[in-house]
C-alpha cells in the first residue's frame, strides 16, 4: 500500500482550484480535483479524480470514506499499468485516461461516475465505467438496491423495461437489449436522471462503443422504483 501511495504522489503534476458543491439540506462539500499526467515511451497517463473536503464536521466521516475508496481505485489503476509487461512491438505506448462526472441527489447523496479508457496492446483499447454512490452523512456506499426497489422479479422487470424504453441504438448497431440485475454497479445520478452505463462489448461489437441510458427521475418515481 505504501508503494501505491508513493506512485500516486509522484505522478501528480497539477491540482485544480476548489469548487463548492451544495444541495438543499445544507450539505456542502468542497471538491478538490486532482490530475495525474505522465508521458514517456512506455506510457501515456491522463487521470482526473475528485477529493472531497467537508464544511461541516457531520460530513467528515463520509468525505474520508469516499476519498479512501476513490484513492484505492486510482492507485490500483496506476499499479496495473506499472505491472504490465513491456509493450508489444507495433504500438507506441500503453495508455490510461480517466475522467469523471459528479453530482448530488436526494440531498444527502454524492454520485461519481468514472469513465476509464485503457490501451494495453492489441487492436484497440477498452472503455468502461466505475461508479461511486455514497450517503455522505452515514458514510456508506449505496448499491442498486439501496437506491431502487429491485428486490422482486416484478420490480427488476419494470426497471429493465425503462432501460429499453430510453435505450438509444443508432443504426441498430447494438445486438443486445440492456438488462440489469440487483448486482449491477454502473449507475449514477446526473441532472435529474439516473444513468446506467454499459462498457465496450456489453451490448454489442466494439464498433458500437459504450452505451449510457438516462432514465428521468420522474419516470422512476412514477413506476414506484425510486426509494430516495
TrEMBL record:
Keyword entries, A-Z: Signal
Lineage start: Bacteria, Pseudomonadati, Bacteroidota, Bacteroidia, Marinilabiliales
Superkingdom to which the source organism belongs: Bacteria
Annotated signal sequence range: 1-19
Key word Signal present: yes
Protein name as it appears in the record: DUF3298 and DUF4163 domain-containing protein
Keyword Signal: yes
InterPro entries: DUF3298, PdaC, PdaC/RsiV-like_sf
Residues covered by the DUF3298 domain: 155-216
Domain annotation Deacetylase PdaC: ranges: 44-127
Amino acid at each position: 500500500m505504501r508503494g501505491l501511495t508513493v506512485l500516486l504522489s509522484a505522478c501528480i503534476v497539477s491540482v485544480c482550484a476548489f469548487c463548492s458543491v451544495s444541495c438543499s439540506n445544507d450539505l456542502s462539500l468542497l471538491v478538490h480535483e486532482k490530475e495525474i499526467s505522465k508521458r514517456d515511451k512506455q506510457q501515456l497517463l491522463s487521470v482526473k479524480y475528485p477529493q472531497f473536503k467537508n464544511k461541516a464536521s457531520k460530513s467528515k466521516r463520509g468525505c474520508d470514506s469516499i476519498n479512501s475508496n476513490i484513492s484505492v481505485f486510482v492507485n490500483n489503476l496506476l499499479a496495473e499499468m506499472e505491472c504490465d509487461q513491456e509493450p508489444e512491438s507495433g504500438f507506441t505506448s500503453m495508455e490510461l485516461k480517466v475522467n469523471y462526472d459528479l453530482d448530488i441527489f436526494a440531498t444527502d447523496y454524492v454520485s461519481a461516475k468514472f469513465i476509464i479508457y485503457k490501451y494495453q496492446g492489441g487492436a484497440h483499447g477498452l472503455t468502461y465505467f466505475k461508479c461511486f454512490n455514497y450517503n455522505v452523512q452515514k458514510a456508506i456506499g449505496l448499491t442498486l438496491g439501496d437506491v431502487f426497489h429491485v428486490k422482486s422479479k416484478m420490480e427488476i422487470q419494470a426497471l429493465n423495461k425503462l432501460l429499453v424504453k430510453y435505450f438509444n441504438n443508432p443504426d441498430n448497431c447494438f445486438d443486445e437489449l440492456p438488462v440489469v440485475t440487483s448486482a449491477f454497479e454502473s449507475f449514477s445520478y446526473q441532472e435529474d436522471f439516473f444513468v446506467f452505463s454499459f462498457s465496450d462489448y456489453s451490448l454489442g461489437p466494439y464498433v458500437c462503443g459504450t452505451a449510457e441510458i438516462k432514465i428521468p427521475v420522474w419516470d422512476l418515481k412514477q413506476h414506484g422504483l425510486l426509494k430516495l
